[in-house]
Amino acid sequence: MASGLLGKKKQNGIRILLMLLPGVAVLGMFTFYPIIKMVVMSFFNWKIGFNQVSPFVGLKNYITVFSDPIAGRSLVNTLYYAAITVPVQLILGLLVALLIHKITRFSVTFRLLYYLPVITSWVVVALLFRYIFSNEGLLNYLLCDVLRIVQEPVGWLSSRWTALTATTLLGIWKGIGWNMVIFLAALQAVPKQYYEAASIDGLGSAQQFFYITIPNIKGTILFALVMLMIGAFNTYTPIAVITGGNPAHQTDVVLTWMYSQTFDSLKMGYAAALSVIITCIVAAIAILLFTVIRPQKENIQG
Amino acid sequence: MKKTFSRKRKRFDGPLAIRYLLLICGLIVMVLPMVYMISSSLRPNNMTFSYPPKIIPAVGELTLANYQYVLFSQSFLRYISNTLYVAAVSTLLAAALSSLLAYCISRFTFLGRNLLFGTIITVMLIPGLVMIVPQFELAVRLKLVDNLWGVILFYTAWIMPFSTFLIKGFVDNIPSELDEAIYIDGGSIFTVYRTVILPMASPSIAAVSIFNFLFAFEELGWSQTILRMDRLRTLPVAITQFFQAHNRTDWGYVFAMTCLSMIPVIIIYIALQRYFISGLSTGAIKG
Question: Chain A within 8 Å of B115 (Cβ-Cβ)?
């Protein structure tokens, strides 16, 4: 009996191994291994050719990254993009969710249309925004000739901050629908009795929002913040398509700068060091978000 | 239900009207760029830089010439079939491999289980493109450059961590009494996977699969690195290259391409829209 059970366990072990193997192999080969390799490469003056020797340079790549003004600027650009798009799309998405949550008719129609930019490819919407923000584009026409806010057309894509702002607006516009959907789900999960009890106690709708809604969707807010933050650091396509980092790397974000260093300048070691630094920054912000938001949640429950 | 509805209808509901008004204002901002794209694709290519720009084109200038050019003078059909192939294969691979991983991690204790799951979660935090340097070297060594499998395999590895994470959360909530019933009937853990886990977890698998499918229509950085040959290009690369090759001015053609490239996406979206919502919300609430 006991040995039979043991035999069964052994058999199961082999079966578990068989089920794990393909997934672990693909992940290991194409994700885990490159991550380790990336860390190793960052300490070498890495050469891509097969017969070339890559000399070990220690921390030199890291020192170069930290003293490189363009790397610093691209990081500032990324942080600017994240600092604006993350909170604005989260708040607007939550607002749309709150509005749609309480309506009865056309709610599915609104949801479908607000979600449309989310499923549209980044390449498509980036090209579209490049067209809209061009010198003789729709936006300048609206600002100049229709609303008459500005005298002359704004050269949106030819200087650093205006070009970044155009990209930021694209990020917000594309992200609202995603936030709306996850907050709608979260709002539907809040028990209705809470609101009924609060109404009986005479709480106004603003108080209900801050004392009932917000605490109950805190988990979703944390989830959204982390996902949006990763997404902001993942920004490559909109910059690559709208400005290409121009003029003169003024509008590069970390990933476009890393890409151009990898494939235009072939500075593999430098790019790897930059990658390690980006990864550390994202991980640090994620951990920070988890530690700042989690304890408060427990306080409310306890 | 009906009674309250008709009663509400008689009185003018101020707050509700404001809700609709705000939603419609927002909707105009959301939809206007899309409308502008479609209308620009229907105007003659040489008119797309005329000033002032028109959101609604005049009836007389409407034309399908841009679509004709893109469909018959460019390899658009090849690009779209490349994209569909990459999307389908990487989605199927990721669904199979992720659900197996999720099942094992959720149900069994084995050596390195926590390490594996911890690594998967950590990988989710890393922006995909930062690994491009070592991944490119790997692709060169495995002769995956200028090969659609170079895109498929890396996409699969790229989308698997999030898929595994989401499906695992779903499998955790499937009662293990169902597994026991299969064991009593003499079934193995393979039988459990096939007859319990796969059907029960299908909503979560469907949800991640939709996102994984759209990934091939979206991703530019890796695909433009790997696919140098024109006949292998997927849509994001093809559209970007076309735009750059045409002096960045042929907007009529570009928008005809982008509009056409959205058709499969829209079809999938409308057909499977309830999974978009359900799948995302499981992730959101669990997260």
Answer: no
**Model confidence band, residue A112 (pLDDT cutoffs 50, 70, 90):** confident
Identify which of A124, A237, A262 has the shortest CB distance to residue B261.
A124
- Between B27, B119, B280, which is nearest A110 by CB? B27
Q: Tell me the CATH number for domain B74-286.
A: 1.10.3720.10
Tokens read off for B70: 């893109």
* pTM tops 0.90, yes or no: no
Neighbours of A116 (CB within 10 A): 17
The 8-class DSSP code of residue A156 comes to: G
- pLDDT means over runs of 10, chain B (287 residues): 49 82 92 91 82 79 88 88 95 96 93 92 85 89 92 94 92 89 89 91 87 90 90 92 85 92 88 67 45
pLDDT at B278: 60
Ordered by start, the domain boundaries in chain B are 12-64, 74-286
Sort out which chain B residues have CB atoms less than 8 A from A181's CB and list them: 276-277, 280-281
Calpha distance B96→B198 (Å, rounded): 9
Characterize B174-204 residue by residue with b for buried, 16 or more Cβ atoms within 10 angstroms of its Cβ, and e for exposed. beeeebeebeeeebebeebbebbbbeebbeb
The CATH superfamily label for domain A67-301 reads MetI-like (1.10.3720.10)
- Is residue B82 within 8 A of residue B237, CB to CB? The reply is no
Instruction: Provide the chain B residues 5-34 that lie in CB contact (below 8 A) with chain A.
Output: 5, 16, 19-20, 22-23, 26-27, 29-31, 33-34
What CA–CA distance (Å, rounded) separates A209 from B39? 41
